[in-house]
Specification:
Blueprint (H helix, E strand, L loop, with lengths): L6 E7 L3 E8 L4 E8 L2 H13 L10 E3 L5 H6 L6 E3 L2 H8 L10 H15 L11 H34 L1 H7 L9 H9 L3 H5 L3 H10 L6 H12 L8 H35 L6 H5 L6 H11 L9 H8 L4 E5 L2 E5 L6 H17 L1 H14 L3 H22 L5 H4 L1 H7 L1
Parallel strand pairs: 1-4, 4-5
Antiparallel strand pairs: 1-2, 2-3, 6-7
Helix pairs in contact: 5-6, 5-11, 5-13, 6-10, 7-9, 7-11, 9-10, 13-15, 14-17, 15-16, 15-17, 16-17, 16-19
């Protein structure tokens, strides 16, 4: 069947089955099929596409409401363009085909196919990232999620300790990472209540610190902890205190698992990210280490044709401002629709770059003096600038050079 991409495919996916619809350039429904979410169903889908002219050199584009999963992985093989349509956008398109607002899975597949037929130019296909970049994406996002989960559980544990065991918070306050340290968790397991903590002997405290892997200053820390635990503290009734201790032990188990998961994923990122060809360029930027650099690569990918220019990348990250104009009124605000993970990484990147780069520090200071930016606005502007520099360096395969990146700021600082 000779054609110039005149057939479009829409897939309404679900957990166990999917609905497929094919339409031609005139909007005529050519075929529809209900397939299962397994290898047999994928073969039926590929066979259906082949029947309607799908070839390796000229594949039929596909619209689907997700960018993940085995079905998407099968469709992304070769040169096929796969469009991940936002479900909210698909719901708006549905009103164009049915004023009664009825919904059905076959009808949604038909709507998705027509989105490509009418507005394919307005939607971005999934980037053609390498397998290594996609692996880094999985690991970096998982490590970020594990870090957030660890902090959330630590906050829950801290809130619980404030209710009945403030001595533990005072005892662990001098330690970096506080409740997430293995020494703190071992002490809490040995003494889940303040009453039991006050009765700990020096030998028991030292044994708990050794189990946690501490090798130096054990005797000094043990004496300090016993002094804190034996101070005069208010207590809950004994029965309530014991119950709260059981609740605290359950949170300790969760926090231990979260800490282990975050550490293991961090090691996996440290092994995978440096193998990528773009890692050297990314790590040359001030403020970007292995973990944060991997998060940046995970969100922008290594398909260097994904963004037409640096402005597209900046808008995707939410670092560039947006202008809203209506009549005589005009306002410039920050973007709300953005890649939240990349935007969060950009905040940390800019925060670290201020310390690591004299030019970045001078740039933020100049933004505050000349433009009246608050600290957060100055950091966002710095992230916006450095993101454009990263785009340039990745496109031209160049490393970051401080003198080239901040010539005016460095001259003013000098």
């Amino acid at each position: 069947m000779g054609r110039n991409i005149l057939i479009y495919c829409g897939i309404d996916w679900a957990e166990r089955t999917h609905d497929v619809a094919l339409v031609d350039d005139g909007g005529q429904l050519l075929a529809k099929r209900h397939i299962t979410d397994d290898a047999a169903g994928y073969k039926i889908l590929l066979g259906l596409l082949a029947e309607h002219g799908d070839t390796e050199e000229n594949p039929i584009p596909v619209a689907i409401e997700t960018s993940r999963g085995l079905l998407v992985a099968v469709l992304r093989t070769g040169k096929r363009k796969v469009f991940a349509i936002n479900p909210m956008a698909a719901a708006r398109y549905r009103d164009r085909h049915s004023v009664s607002r009825k919904k059905s899975d076959p009808g949604d597949a038909f709507v998705l196919a027509n989105i490509l037929r009418t507005d394919m130019h307005a939607h971005r296909p999934l980037p053609q990232d390498s397998d290594l970049a996609r692996a880094v994406t999985v690991l970096a996002r998982a490590q970020q999620d594990a870090t957030w989960n660890r902090q959330q559980i630590a906050n829950q544990l801290r809130s619980l300790l404030r209710e009945y065991y403030p001595a533990a918070l005072v005892a662990f306050e001098p330690w970096k990472n506080g409740l997430c340290r293995s020494e703190a968790l071992e002490i809490l397991k040995a003494a889940p209540t303040p009453s039991r903590a006050a009765s700990l002997t020096r030998t028991q405290v030292q044994a708990a610190l050794k189990r946690a892997g501490r090798q130096r200053g054990i005797a000094t820390q043990a004496d300090r902890l016993r002094e804190v635990f034996r101070a005069d503290w208010a207590h809950q009734p004994p029965a309530v205190e014991d119950a709260l201790g059981q609740q605290m032990l359950a949170l300790v188990v969760q926090l231990e698992a979260a800490c282990t998961a975050a550490d293991n994923l961090a090691k996996a990122v440290e092994e995978a990210f440096p193998q990528h060809p773009d890692a050297e360029i990314i790590l040359s930027f001030p403020g970007l280490g292995v973990q944060l650099g991997a998060r940046v690569l995970a969100e922008i990918g290594d398909d260097h044709t994904r963004f037409a220019d640096a402005r597209g990348l900046k808008a995707y990250a939410g670092s560039s401002p947006i202008t809203r104009a209506s009549g005589k009124k005009s306002s410039i605000t920050r973007r709300w629709v953005k890649n939240d993970r990349l935007n969060h990484a950009g905040y940390l990147w800019a925060f670290s770059a201020i310390t690591a780069s004299p030019g970045a520090k001078a740039h933020c200071r100049r933004r505050g003096d000349d433009h009246g930016d608050w600290h957060a606005a100055g950091q966002r502007n710095l992230f916006n600038r450095m993101l454009g520099q990263l785009y340039h360096c990745l496109q031209h395969r160049e490393l970051f050079v401080e003198q080239t990146a901040f010539p005016i700021e460095l001259a003013a600082a000098a």
